Amino acid sequence: MAMDNKPAEGDLSVRFWGVRGSHPVSGLDVCAFGGHTACVEVRCGERLFVIDAGTGITRLGQALGADAPAQIDLLLSHLHLDHVIGLPFFRPALMKGTTLRLYCGNLGGETAEVALDRLFAPPLFPVKLAQLPATIEHVGFHAGETLTFDDGVEVRTCPLQHPSGATAYRFDHRGRSVCYVSDIEHDELGPWPHEELLAFVRDADLVIYDAMYTEAEYCRCRGWGHSTCDAGVALCRAAGVGRLAAFHLHPWHTDADLADMERRLDMMMPGSFVAREGQEIHLTAARAAA
Question: Using CA atoms, how far apart are residues 101 and 30, in angstroms rounded to an integer?
Fold first, then answer.
């Protein structure tokens, strides 16, 4: 499987801008893996998608700068605070002429507009999203549907077990595939891996997976909506997945803790890793059969 850090035209690529769950952290003991909450950039060639708007989205906005696309599709896994808190600080949202489309699939087909207007409004926030210079558009769907965008690009989705629900996303481009599977409770719906999710991630090159807890921690936190590296590995092995990226990292896990997790993860599933802020993964387009 071709996967490296050297971009090529037409690649399916991933860049991590925020990898933590629950809340951001800072300090000398979290520098290596980073402290921002969930945000992942996915590019299908030059086509940009953004998944989740945790505090990591602020760094993505800075990196895009004035070269940000005129229209940006932001796919929200769900609306918990750690996944949306960076939204009004995303630089393209502060640029007149930009259209930011927010997709939400865990509200039974409803958009995120009402919920976000409750959060980003006085007295909790000084302005509403509609007052930002960019145009904000809201799209609701049912997790499990396939999203089809204006340019014909399709993104598959899958519902996840999580308080108030969550949505997984799958990107397929030129023979390569990446799945984003966060936040998920793996032990609440019967035998693991769940058949629907197993089919969803089948043969993916990379699965970005909720690894919030160690096995010992998970025993104390059942029902909170998160998972472990071990459960992720079991899913990926059963589905023929190439690599797992441990994601949605616990805010209390230090660089030393995560380095230990990564060593163990690589032993269980060689080539897998714990996601780091700024890390880029490029999946070279598969060659057509002769």
Answer: 32
> What distance in Å separates the CA atoms of residue 251 and residue 34, rounded to the nearest whole number?
10
Residue tagged 């629900």 (tokens): 165
Q: What phi, psi does 174 have (nearest 5°)?
A: 50, 45
Cα distance between residue 118 and residue 245, in whole Å: 33
Q: What average pLDDT does the segment 226-234 reach?
A: 94
This prediction's pTM: 0.94
* CB distance 250 to 221 below 8 Å: no
Domains of the chain: 3-283 (3.60.15.10)
* Nearest one of 47, 56, 64, 73 to 20, comparing CA atoms: 56
Within a 13 Å sphere around the CA of 216, how many CA atoms are in the beta-carbon half? 1
Q: What is the DSSP letter of 86?
A: T
- Taking every pair of Cα atoms in the chain, the longest distance, rounded to a whole number of angstroms, is 63
Question: What is the distance, to the nearest Å, from the Cα of residue 203 to the centroid of all Cα atoms in its chain?
Answer: 19
List strands edge to edge, sheet with 12-18: 3-4, 280-283, 12-18, 39-44, 47-51, 71-76, 99-104, 135-140
Poorest-pLDDT segment among 53-57, 221-225, 263-267: 221-225
